[in-house]
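Second opinion, please. Please look over this fold, written as tokens:

===
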Amino acid sequence: MATQIASETRIDEVADGIFRISTPVDSIAGGGITYNQYLIVDEEPLLFHTGKRRMFPQVQAAVTRVMPLERLRWISFSHFEADECGALNDFLAAAPNALPVCGQLLAMLSVNDTADRDARTLADGEELGIGRCRVQWLDTPHLPHAWESGLLMEHTTGTLLCSDLFTEGGTDHPALFEGDILGPSDAFRRKLDFYNHTKDTRAMLTRLAGLKPTTLARMHGSAWRGDGAGLLLALAEALEAGP
């Protein structure tokens, strides 16, 4: 499924019941970048990333191409940053039964002060059933940045909602890709150096690899399909090679 909305934003199904909403912005990052959100359509639908506040009308319109926005039950994101959660309160206003869902540190530091409704917090490794799908929160402090960072693994489809891992610049990306993303994303990282290079990076990436994801839902770039475990371990090697 691929639907153009407004003049830029599109929505594509990249795994069974998981839709990538993508808006290209060509005015930043020296060549532009895409901002992606992921909608899991289930008994209790979940949106991962909200996009920036000013993107809300486009992202909202994309969601409504797939389901009524008021059905949204959960709104999640990795860390506190405008592209992760800038439109959080807009979505909470439009979906009266929705709640933020995030890690305990993220809720304590930011979300429960700034969000119009308190978050449903998940401990590291805790799972949340949303119907046929099952999401698990994984604390990833400082990976790639922000103390409160965490990721979601959707086990039914094998999809890792990996936020800024494997960030790639540019605005012309297919919705789902099976080629090399490590090379382009590593070149982008070396140019901007937005990783924290924490001493625990390899251990966290090894843990994520152990989940054996087959789809990586990136915030910036295509969603990717393949041997996610191998790619995550290759990322650990690249990061250890230095900035």
Remarks:
- The first strand starts at residue 2 and ends at 4.
- The radius of gyration is 16 Å.
